[in-house]
Amino acid sequence: VRFGVLQAGAYGMSQSRKRAFIWEASPEETLPEWPEPMHVFTGPELKIPIMLLFEAPQMYKSEPVSWFQKKIRADMLVLNDHISKAMSELNLIRCQKIPKQPGSDWRVLPSEKGFSDSYKFVGDIQHKHRQIGNAVAPPLAFALGRKLKEAVEMKASTSQRYSCVL
């Protein structure tokens, strides 16, 4: 039995998604190796900037616009416990690519997860979204399948060599 945690981003996906995997085989079988990462991928980390005490309180940058903002702010002048993480250029580009017009197609989601446009999902829209969200990213699944195939082919070639020697 071999346990491993693989990061989808290391196999070409634009997401930080770690998945646990288990290779298991009978004792006479050879377990496949884990696929080598194809990309350097570091997950997002929360970085809280250190600031001087007099810098800490932040004033609201504008007057409340909506009824909700007015209600939430009440009489507060200072914004407490607010941490804004700077968006990386890559994430900014990703956000810009999100279709914003009415009638935008949900089909963009599977493409972002690595599914080909020809892939067919089954069920109603909720089931399709669940299939997409719960799936192992196809590029990662392909990398695992390639390693499994290598192990099977290695076993076949080894057993052929031994049968020739006998």
Q: Which strands sit side by side, in order, in the main sheet?
A: 1-2
Termini distance?
A: 31 Å
User: What is the strand content?
Assistant: 5-15%
Major sheet details:
2 strands, antiparallel
Work out the radius of gyration: 25 Å
Write down the secondary-structure element order.
EEEHEHHHH
Mean pLDDT, nearest integer?
78
Counting DSSP E segments of at least 2 residues, the number of strands comes to 4
- Overall outline: elongated
Which bin fits the share of residues in helices? 25-40%
Structural class by helix and strand composition = alpha+beta
Counting H and I runs of at least 4 residues, what is the number of helices?
Answer: 5
Low-confidence stretches: none
Task: Describe what this molecule looks like in 3D.
The protein is an alpha+beta fold and 166 residues long. The chain has a domain at 98-138. 35% of the residues lie in helices and 10% in strands. It contains five helices and four strands. The protein has helices at residues 67-73, 89-96, 108-112, 125-134, 138-165, and strands spanning 2-7, 18-23, 58-59, 78-79. The strands form two sheets. The chain has a two-stranded antiparallel sheet with strand order 1-2. The protein has a two-stranded antiparallel sheet with strand order 3-4. The longest helix has 28 residues, at 138-165. The radius of gyration is 25 Å and the shape is elongated. The two termini are 31 Å apart. InterPro entries: C5-Methyltransferase, C5_MeTfrase, C5_meth_CS, SAM-dependent_MTases_sf.
